[in-house]
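VOC domain-containing protein structure dump, as promised
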Amino acid sequence: MINFTFNHIALSVRDVDESVAFYQKVFHFKEIENTASNSKTRWLTIGNGKQLHLIPRPDFEIKINKAVHFAFSTADFDAFIKYLEDINITYSDWNDIPNKVYIRQDGIKQIYFQDPNGYWLEVNNDC
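structure tokens r here:
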């Protein structure tokens, strides 16, 4: 059987500098070298060898849907929520109730918010 591991996620973004700044501010992701090309695509490390690639597409229409999102987990869930509040990032639960934490049936807490391009992000405490 062939085994796979997650390597990276790539997002089309209107303003690559704004997007890099957002992910660095919110998640403290470090920028790493784009070793694939000399393009304006910028890479961030999200830890454990995983990456986020931000591809500039200033004229591309970005369609969003909350069901299409990516998620990060943290053991410091409550501290992260406080941090979002401190940097004025609005979050909601799955049902779009502002500043509310959603608790799944299995007890995992989660919140949702959007990046500057409208992509949905989930943060949960499933560590």
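The chain has a mean pLDDT of 94.
lmk if u need the other ones
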